Structure formats: C-alpha cells, structure tokens
Amino acid sequence: RCQGCWPLAVRFGFIFAINHTGINYEVPSFDVFREVAQIFDKGFQDILRSFPSEVLARGVDEFAFDAIQGNIFDMSAHSGFDTVESVEPNSKADRSNSKARRTRKTTDPLFNSGTRPGEGMTWWQIVAGKRRDVKLAVLRALAANEQTLFGLDVENGLEDFVAAVVSAFFDNDLFHSVRRFLTSARGSFGLGISCSLDAGRQMVVAARGQTISVAFYPKLGLVLYGSEQAAVKAGLGFKAPPGTTSEVYNQNLGPAMRLDLDDLGGEITLIDWGKEKLQLAPKEAQLRRNVVMNGAVTMVSAHEEVSVGVDRFQERLVPLEDNPLMLPLPEPCKDVVKRDIDDIPRILHDIQEDWKE
Q1: Where is this region: Disordered (predicted)?
Q2: What pLDDT, on the 0 to 100 scale, is given for residue 271?
C-alpha cells in the first residue's frame, strides 16, 4: 500500500521492477529510498506547478495533500472546459449539438495531454492522468545529470523501474494492493485487511478456500465481518441508543443483511464508508459499486473466478432479521464457557447419530 508516498513507491519498484539474482539480495535502507524519492517528488511538483492558478494560490504542497485525500474540485469553473453535465444532452434538441460540444478543445494547460475529467472528479484522479508526464520529467532529470538508480540506466531497465514507481504511487491503494498480493499468493485465505493510512474509511475482506461473511446492520450503523456465518449475527438483539434515530426512520432502513463472499471462485471486496468520493485505480475503476447501509457504505468486489452471479448483488444478501430460516441467537447466560462445556455431550451425540444416518 504505497499510494501517495514516494519512498514506499520507490521501495516497491526496487523489489518488483528490478531483476534480482536470487532472493537473498541486499535491500537498501529506507533513507536510500527517501533520497531517490526526492527525484520523483521534484518531477511530480514540477507537473503540479503547471496546473491552473487556483492550485498555485493554495500552494503546491497543500494541493498535493488535498489531492491524495480525494477532495473534489469543480472543474466547470475553468474556461474552455466542458463538464460531463454540460456535454450530456438533456433533450432531443441538445442531442443534435452534443457531438460538436464533446469535441470542443480546451486551452487550459492542465489538459494539454488530452485528459478530459468530468464533473465531480477528484484532484487525485486528475493528477493521476498526468502520470506519463511525471515519468518523463523524472527520466529527463536523470538523463540531464547522467544519473543511474540502483545500477539501472536507460539501456538497462531504468525506464521500467521509473514506470513501476510512478504507477505504484498513483495506483497502489489498499484494494489494488490486496488484489496484487492474492494474484501471486498460493493457498486458501480468509482475510480482513486494513492499513493505518485508510483505517478511518475503508478495509478489504477476501475469501479463497475459506469462508468470509459481512453483515450490515443499518439501524445500528454497524458492519461486522468474520469467518463464521453465525459470528456476524452478534448484532442481532441490540438496539440503537435512545434518541439517535427515530422509529419511523429506522423502519425505512430495512433489516440486517449478510453477504457471503465467494470462497469457491475467490472474491476480494472493498468496504468503504468514507465521506469523500471513492476513487479507485484504473484497473478497479470499472468494477460495479454497490451501496448498502442507506448509502453510507460502498462495496466493490473483484472475483478471481466467477462462480456466482456477479451482477446480482442484492440477490446474494441474506436477511438476518424476520427470516424463519435463520436460527436465533442463544439465550444470554452468565457463564458462557460452562454452557459450551455442558453442550459437548449433546453435540457429540448429534454427530454420532448423524453418522448412523
């Protein structure tokens, strides 16, 4: 997970974009990665300075931070730029002119490379469209100083290394990183993954050969995940604190639901509850987004092998409330451990009877 951090992206490039001999190669200290990252950061800052005057007025450093946070900027304020809303025909009369309006050229230096973001795009998405310019800026700086990186030059893998670092900086968010990890991983997994950089807004759960379930409790504002279906029923019976929501409002939220990930074909699911617009790497941007919890949570799933109906998200949800097929939670007791021990003879008896049948 190195999106937005050049030193981490450089380390990623060193490990994955360089052909090392064997697995016992020497890894430089993180200070070395920081030093190399300054070259990439300078190229990145140079590209940012070519952006509109609104950016310069706020300061490049503040803009870079804001971009990484995903704050949305209204591009319709720039002359010569058409937003998606402005070019989409709203009537039959508009449709006749839509083609000409879509091909209108812009004089804004931000879009010299042909990037045409639409209304509501984040600054980070706009900046990510300039990755080619960042890559070229870094390569030009290295060529001007006749500088090599980790023994690489233009004829020996330098361009591939720079491209890998730039891509990692822009694309390697939590979701993309987990997908990359599982592509090369072997074995069965039931994972719940978070990162300190994104812990306040998202996490990823993944299932391959092991079960993972996610339960949504819209009336409680609660999301649970676990490897056992019964475990995520823990929210049943709880009530929202008095005065938090009205009874009428709660009735409109619907029952608690459970989603069982596809452990047979393999499934990786992003759970995002951030207030800012969810932005994904290009590889994941085309995946279907499903909204749950009355719009508070967005889920994006990637299937390794499709063994369930990918487009039937709602049909995969299992009601946990008002469902006659759902076993209720056991009655609460003071000593749960004692109850489990007392249940052992009954459970063993049930197993033996089941084998007889």
Answers
A1: 85-112
A2: 95
